[in-house]
Design goal:
Blueprint lengths: L1 E6 L4 H13 L3 E6 L9 H20 L16 E5 L4 H7 L1 H4 L4 E5 L12 H13 L2 E4 L2 H14 L1 H9 L1 E3 L21 E5 L4 H16 L5 E5 L3 H7 L5 H4 L2 E5 L4 H7 L4 E4 L8 H7 L5 E2 L5 H5 L9 H13 L16 H5 L4 H12 L9
Parallel strand pairs: 1-2, 1-3, 3-4, 4-5, 5-6, 7-8, 7-10, 8-9, 10-11
Length: 370
């Protein structure tokens, strides 16, 4: 099969996901991506992104970005796999003359409808429009799928019924590091990594935990990982002065310096909403860095034996226990001394997972855990 991935957000985390699948797939996969956009999708941006990708498709098939009845499409794909963040209904309307008969599926790396607390009704409206227009919906976790369909039921019962019949789960894949994982103890200094993808809800969760830890006088330092360090620095200006003093730096996840700091860190903190594909988190966890993730997150579902934290107070308790060296008596805190998550991650590495993706695109089943 020839599959084209349509990426309206263009983040490097999603690029890593697409490239990993492409390297290990038996299908021909092409990624058409827009430049990275830090702003969350809404109906206006979703429409603009859809039209921009429609022009990319038209240029790829006819050599011109503008409609021209004298130019016939050549080399059409068998399947279009759109990622969340664009209005699929607008895209289909703009490409109807080119793509008749070609199915359009959506893979949801994230969504507003799938979150426990619906805080973005504009984004939810965009997602409902796209769900109605797609031929199939794929979600990164079953909990995400169920919450999405439940929320969609309140907006459009007919679309929710169709979505239930045409949806499945397909876990996010990642590239397992080629080097051996770190199995040594971290430095005595309390370094922690934290992945920040720009979501203010994730920042609020961090503030809840770190504020409590700082108030108790716990010694720790934070290294933030962001695909856009300058923008992250502006967002982190919101940090209270005592916490800002604990922020040692902001690095790109693929910066070699990030790997060096990871080897010195006690844990990797994930505070993003529960719908987000944790590709960077999985990549660092595979290097032996303990992943500390919230209850109900995608990674918690993929690794059901992984201990999770429920709220900021509990995460602060984990930090305190780790800094005091008392986590050995806590069976509920992942540490480098017992990296049970390493083998549990292997089914989600691309050499193992790509065949499942390939089968699902060709009409195979996608449900269930590997």
């Amino acid at each position: 099969m020839e599959i084209w991935i349509l990426d309206p957000w263009g983040t490097e985390e999603r690029r890593a996901w697409a490239e990993g699948w492409t390297r290990h797939s038996r299908h021909q996969i092409r990624r058409l991506a827009l430049p990275a956009d830090p702003l969350p999708p809404d109906p206006v941006r979703g429409r603009e992104r859809a039209l921009a990708l429609a022009r990319r498709i038209r240029r790829a098939l006819t050599g011109s970005a503008t409609p021209d009845p004298t130019r016939l499409p050549a080399g059409r794909p068998h399947l279009l796999l759109a990622l969340d963040g664009m209005d699929v209904a607008v895209f289909r309307e703009a490409t109807a003359d080119l793509l008749e008969g070609i199915p359009v599926w959506i893979y949801w790396h994230d969504s507003a409808l799938g979150r426990r607390r619906l805080s973005d009704p504009n984004r939810a409206a965009l997602e409902a429009s796209s769900a109605r227009a797609a031929d199939r919906l794929l979600f990164n976790a079953e909990g995400h799928r169920q919450r999405f369909l439940t929320a969609l039921q309140a907006i459009d019962p007919a679309a929710a019924a169709m979505g239930a019949a045409r949806s499945a789960t397909l876990p996010p894949g990642f590239s397992f590091p080629t080097s051996s994982p770190r199995l040594t103890a971290p430095e005595a200094m309390g370094w922690f990594l934290w992945i920040f993808r720009g979501d203010l809800e994730a920042l609020d969760r961090l503030l809840d935990a770190m504020g409590l830890a700082a108030a108790k006088g716990i010694d720790f330092r934070l290294i933030a990982l962001s695909e856009d360090p300058p923008r992250a620095a502006r967002a982190l200006e919101r940090l209270p002065r005592p916490l800002k003093a604990r922020l040692f730096g902001i690095l790109h996840p693929e910066d070699p310096e990030a790997s060096r700091w990871a080897a010195r860190s006690h844990a990797l903190l994930e505070t993003d909403p529960e719908t987000r594909s944790p590709i960077w988190t999985m990549t660092f966890a595979a290097r032996g860095i303990p992943p500390w993730v919230p209850e109900g997150s995608v990674l918690a579902e993929l690794l059901p034996g992984l201990p999770t934290w429920r709220n900021g107070r509990e995460l602060a308790e984990w930090i305190e226990a780790e800094r005091k060296g008392s986590t050995s008596s806590w069976s509920g805190v992942p540490t480098c001394r017992s990296p049970s998550w390493l083998e549990a991650l292997r089914p989600y590495a691309w050499p193992a997972l790509a065949a499942r993706y390939d089968a699902s695109m060709a009409g195979g089943e996608a449900e269930g855990a590997p």
